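Quick one, tokens below:
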């Protein structure tokens, strides 16, 4: 009985196990079928959203279109040079063998997708890491380049598989390989294997040797890495890898391999300079600088990360920009017009101009000029090239931080001196006129661009608010000194005067000054609003925006910078009635060594700036010379030439402005004191900088009368001199012209900078020591109104030279 029951239980357990197995198998099958159905539905959905199958896109790249701020078409971008088409029957077998060996050896054996290679790639990626092996067939690569983006998503892969299947249904393998050979990118704007063969080796395909054919086959994998003009070793190594694959797949013999691997590709490489390398050729050169900015911002954008911009532009995208078409055309036109200038030196090839126009409120890039007759690749975009900026740094490193951190008023006073030794420095600096102006307000100091008060302000900020306070203020405006000299740079007084590492581009300076006119909000200048890609998807672009300073600081600096265009201001000669303008001028001069070597006049300058803004627009203009020649032939000599960019500024701002009467709005955080002076709300104190006691009830100094008497004596003396020597308004402006040659101690900051591609002596002086001692006690940094140099005999200690000094003019031509 017991044995019988035991057997029954065993049979029952066996049946239960079989039943459980069947259930698992059943449910597993249902789950698998469900997975397949859901996968098929998802695939079908993704396939249904794939771009339309286009014959035109399969054959040739589609040019991209560029639209302005009003969504009107302004130009078209054609990628690369003119193509040399090749039919598959005319393509040498050696070339197709090389391509197949490295890209898709079983191309003629599988369908649209190589499932065997796909399985191998999956295993390799699981065992050796993601990306260790790819599985895209030549068909898939043609589809990707013709219709899709570089995005790595399931949706894009599904669309690629669907379109690849369609392509193989409608075209033969030979047709598809022909498309690939004519469509693939080979760096330097080159598309198509025949075009590449002529470009790199000046040969038709049938004349290539085996190593050259292997190189062209392997180049498209990473075209800008394996480009022989960029890295010959990398290019040779890539060709050798292709030869190994050809040998492995039996497409060449070992003897052919051994012969080819020892060939140096450089032997037959066409010699090309950077300027001679292929480039995009815009139909409309007046837009070339702006298109260059568009391409750079496309390449740098987070929205298009890991996207090849060259291929993107060849896919027929529509680019909607912030360009003001009329402003762009006018700006580039006036920059290109050599007859605009009266002086032959400004008509020469040694002289150049760069300018940027942005919307003060939004930061939108309205227009940009990278230089005279600017062309991509052939010429550097000087609007994004860094130059020493001269006195334009004073509001950013001195007065702005003082108002922001120390709550200074616009009538805060500083004791000026004829000469001053900055802290932690052993030589003297001077004002542009080599004079002591007594006790002056920061408003007057900024208007007339005095050096010593600016340096004293900078030092006071560092002492009271912290050593890094000026640097942090500049960083908030997009001017990052932390990136200078690999992060090992220490800000000094010389940077306040625009020397040393105070090198920034016209675009950067426009962004910084626009924040003063926009309530303290910094906006990165943006050229692209959005694009419509080849799949008709809209991609919007975002740009950096943040509050860089208090609105009170921005308004107070702006109110003071209006003085630049008022009598005795450094741009007082240019008048634009009907516009409320604020701004700053700046120039840089040469080192003593350069002055001596080239016999330059003492009042010579190398670069001249003006940055100005209204509530509508911010305009920055840099002018300078690419090389130094004897006797001031390529220098701004005297005040008449120092103000060169101011005429451009006047005409550009007049052309683009609406003259709507708009002024900068005073925020509630600011109040007027002592007439038209400004203070932060509730700030009644003028701080004692060793000049007397402060009476906070009356907002005056107890020693104010004596100080004001000294200040008024200086003003009256200057005015009397002006009235005596001049008979009309033009002569008055010429007589009162002041050359603001900032006495700095570095012998390099007057140079344009090494990034200007200049080959003159100045470029090499950038790396020399920043300070030097003189034994003759002569001072070249402070030039008087007549352009003569001043001397200092009061001390045995050497004076600073005029390198990096900021030479500005205060009046007319």
């Amino acid at each position: 009985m017991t044995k019988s029951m035991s057997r029954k239980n065993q049979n029952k357990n066996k049946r239960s196990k079989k039943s459980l197995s069947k259930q698992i198998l059943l449910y597993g099958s249902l789950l698998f079928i469900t997975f397949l159905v859901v996968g098929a539905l998802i695939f079908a959905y993704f396939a249904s959203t794939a771009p339309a199958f286009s014959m035109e896109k399969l054959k040739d790249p589609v040019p991209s279109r560029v639209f302005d701020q009003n969504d009107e078409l302004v130009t078209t971008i054609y990628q690369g040079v003119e193509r040399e088409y090749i039919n598959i029957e005319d393509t040498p077998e050696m070339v197709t063998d090389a391509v197949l060996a490295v890209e898709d050896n079983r191309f003629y054996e599988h369908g649209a997708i190589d499932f065997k290679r796909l399985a191998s790639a999956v295993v390799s990626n699981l065992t050796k890491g993601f990306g260790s092996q790819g599985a895209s067939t030549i068909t898939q690569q043609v589809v990707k380049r013709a219709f899709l983006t570089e995005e790595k998503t399931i949706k894009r892969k599904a669309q690629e598989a669907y379109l690849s299947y369609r392509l193989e249904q409608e075209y033969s393998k030979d047709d598809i390989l022909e498309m690939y050979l004519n469509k693939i990118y080979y760096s330097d704007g080159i598309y198509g294997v025949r075009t590449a063969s002529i470009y790199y080796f000046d040969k038709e395909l049938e004349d290539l040797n085996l190593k050259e054919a292997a190189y062209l086959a392997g180049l498209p994998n990473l075209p800008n890495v394996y480009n022989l003009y960029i890295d010959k070793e990398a290019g040779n190594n890539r060709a050798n890898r292709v030869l190994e694959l050809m040998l492995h797949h039996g497409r060449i013999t070992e003897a052919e391999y051994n012969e080819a691997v020892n060939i140096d590709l450089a032997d037959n490489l066409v010699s090309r300079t950077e300027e001679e390398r292929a480039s995009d050729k815009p139909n409309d050169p007046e837009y070339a600088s702006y298109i260059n900015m568009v391409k750079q911002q496309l390449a740098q954008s987070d929205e298009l990360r890991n996207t090849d911009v060259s291929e993107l532009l060849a896919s027929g995208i529509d680019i909607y920009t912030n360009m003001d078409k009329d402003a762009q055309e006018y700006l580039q036109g006036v920059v290109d017009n050599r007859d605009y200038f009266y002086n032959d030196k400004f008509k020469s090839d040694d002289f150049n101009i760069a300018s940027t126009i942005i919307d003060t409120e939004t930061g939108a890039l309205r227009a940009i000029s990278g230089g005279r007759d600017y062309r991509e690749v052939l010429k550097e975009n000087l609007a994004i090239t860094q130059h020493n900026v001269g006195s334009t740094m004073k509001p950013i490193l001195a007065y702005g931080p003082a108002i922001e951190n120390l709550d200074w008023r616009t009538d805060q006073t500083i004791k000026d001196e004829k000469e001053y030794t900055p802290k932690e420095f052993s030589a003297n600096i001077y004002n542009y006129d080599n004079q002591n102006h007594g006790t002056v307000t920061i408003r007057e100091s900024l208007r007339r661009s005095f050096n010593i008060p600016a340096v004293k302000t900078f030092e006071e900020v560092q002492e009271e608010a912290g050593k890094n306070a000026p640097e942090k203020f500049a960083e908030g405006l997009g001017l990052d000194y932390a990136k200078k000299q690999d992060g090992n740079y220490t800000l000094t007084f010389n940077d306040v005067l625009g020397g040393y590492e105070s090198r920034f581009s016209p675009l950067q300076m426009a962004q910084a000054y626009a924040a003063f006119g926009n309530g303290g909000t910094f906006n990165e200048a943006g050229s692209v609003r959005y694009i419509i890609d080849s799949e008709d998807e809209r991609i919007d672009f975002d740009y950096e925006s943040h509050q860089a300073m208090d609105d009170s600081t921005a308004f107070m600096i702006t109110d003071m910078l209006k003085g630049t265009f008022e009598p005795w201001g450094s741009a007082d000669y240019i008048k634009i009635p009907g516009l409320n303008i604020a701004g700053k001028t700046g120039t840089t001069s040469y080192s003593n060594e350069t002055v001596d070597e080239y016999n330059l006049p003492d009042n010579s300058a190398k670069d001249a700036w003006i940055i100005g803004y209204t509530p509508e627009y911010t305009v920055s203009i840099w002018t300078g010379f690419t090389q130094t020649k004897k006797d001031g032939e390529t220098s701004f000599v005297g005040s008449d030439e120092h103000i060169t960019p101011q005429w451009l500024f006047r005409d550009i701002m007049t052309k683009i402005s609406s003259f709507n009467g708009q002024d900068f709005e005073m925020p509630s955080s600011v109040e007027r004191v002592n007439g038209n002076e400004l203070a932060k709300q509730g700030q009644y104190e003028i701080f004692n900088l060793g000049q007397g006691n402060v009476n906070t009830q009356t907002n005056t100094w107890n020693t104010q009368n004596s100080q004001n008497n000294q200040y008024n004596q200086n003003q009256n003396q200057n005015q009397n001199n002006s009235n005596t020597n001049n008979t009309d308004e033009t002569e008055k402006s010429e007589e009162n012209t002041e050359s603001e040659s900032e006495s700095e101690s570095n012998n390099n900051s007057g140079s344009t900078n090494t990034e200007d591609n200049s080959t003159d002596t100045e470029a090499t002086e950038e790396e020399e020591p920043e300070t030097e001692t003189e034994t003759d006690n002569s001072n070249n940094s402070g030039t008087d109104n007549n352009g003569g140099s001043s001397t200092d005999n009061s001390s045995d200690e050497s004076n600073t030279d005029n390198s990096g000094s900021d030479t500005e003019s205060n009046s007319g031509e």
